[in-house]
Amino acid sequence: MAGDTVARSVSKFIYIRVGGQIRWIYPPLNKPNTLPARLSEKNMKLLLTIVITIFSFVTKGQQLDNTENQDQDKKGVKYIDLKEGYKIWTKRVGDGKIIILLIHGSGNNHHCFEIFRDKLDLKKYQLIYYDQLGSNNSDKPTDSSLYNIDRFVNEVEQLRIDLELNEFYILGHSWGGALAMEYAIKYPNNVKGLIISNKGYSTPNLINSRVKLWNEIAKGYASGQEIIKQLESGKQVSDTSTLKKIDLDFERRYLRTIQPIPEPMVNSRKNNRRFYITNYSSWDIYDRLQSIKEPTLLIGGDRDFVDKHELFQMKKVIPDSYIFICPNGGHFSFWDDSDNYFREVENFINKTENK
């Protein structure tokens, strides 16, 4: 896929922008569990980046390589050989007895969690940083069949076995939250506690929420309605300058609400392969949430595009769960509202440890 190809969620559509030109429109998700009949294999390949922009933000024109990105400290680094024949990068930080595995979202890498080493006592905690297959320091195979939910769950289990993790916490952000829930259901005896950060239970719901917020912003611009009409009709957007402003406005309101953007967040978007996670566009775990038996913290942001009401629904279903909404948090609440975020994370872990 071309390095300057970007998929973005917009209106009730996904549009593919190649070299600044809108080339293809993805129809409305009226039936989230099915793909439209006219979606060809060729166009499916164009959608390899859909999840990255639905669950995170992306940068155009990134260069990919397998060298470490902005991380010169090799202490605690270990590459794990996967049974699929590829390597993933991990790093231990801290000497504490309480172990937290940090699972990043799609389109990001471990750098987004750098703030954790500053906010948590590394004599109390041991942080496991990890680049998923396709991200940053880990291998980046082009075989799209590798990028599916079940294989990522097994990847986490291979990591756990290799690093000899037992009775540990998983903190998953965005797509990482989905992966954490899937892992906890499949391997219920390995996890001591779950922290689900800025993640609901349904991809279709997430798309609808993001679409609604994007439309609201677009309608505030003079040409916003016309842009929506052009996208709906599959025409080329004439006012690309305003389109870029709408995108930027959305990111600043709901994605990267902290300004200026911290360097680790910038680095987190670099050197990652964009990939489509098979069947993730229809992912919905609501009917299986009751199977999560571990103590679970659901933490979101009041300014996040993830609908916080979905987290309250999750709390009703997950037996041993707690919820906190960061009042100043966007999608990356651990940066946007770090004091509230880390206070609640520590409160949850302390409660769990004292049970």
Instruction: Give the fraction of residues assigned to helices.
Output: 25-40%
The neighbouring-strand order within the major sheet is: 4-5-7-6-8-9-10-11
Report the β-strand fraction as a percent range. 15-25%
Q: Helix tally?
A: 12
Averaged pLDDT = 83
Order of helices and strands: EEEHHEEEHEHEHEHHHHEHEHH
Biggest sheet layout: 8 strands, mixed
Q: Radius of gyration, Cα only, in angstroms?
A: 20 Å
Shape: globular
Q: Uncertain runs with pLDDT below 50, 5 residues or more? A: 1-70
Q: Helices and strands: which structural class?
A: alpha/beta
- Tally the beta strands: 11
What separation lies between the terminal Cα atoms?
Answer: 50 Å
Explain the overall architecture.
There is one protein chain. The chain has 355 residues and is α/β, with parallel strands linked by helices. The protein has twelve helices and eleven strands. The protein has helices spanning 41-46, 50-55, 116-119, 149-163, 175-186, 203-218, 224-233, 240-255, 263-268, 308-317, 333-336, 338-353; strands spanning 5-10, 13-18, 21-26, 77-81, 87-93, 98-103, 125-131, 168-173, 191-197, 296-301, 321-326. The strands form two sheets. An eight-stranded mixed β-sheet has the order 4-5-7-6-8-9-10-11, sandwiched between helices. Strands 1-2-3 form a three-stranded antiparallel β-sheet. Helix 5 links the parallel strand 8 and strand 9 (191-197). The longest helix has 16 residues, at 203-218. It is globular. The model is unreliable at 1-70 (pLDDT under 50).
Summarize the topology.
Blueprint: E1 5-10, E2 13-18, E3 21-26, H1 41-46, H2 50-55, E4 77-81, E5 87-93, E6 98-103, H3 116-119, E7 125-131, H4 149-163, E8 168-173, H5 175-186, E9 191-197, H6 203-218, H7 224-233, H8 240-255, H9 263-268, E10 296-301, H10 308-317, E11 321-326, H11 333-336, H12 338-353
Parallel strand pairs: 6-7, 6-8, 8-9, 9-10, 10-11
Antiparallel strand pairs: 1-2, 2-3, 4-5, 5-7
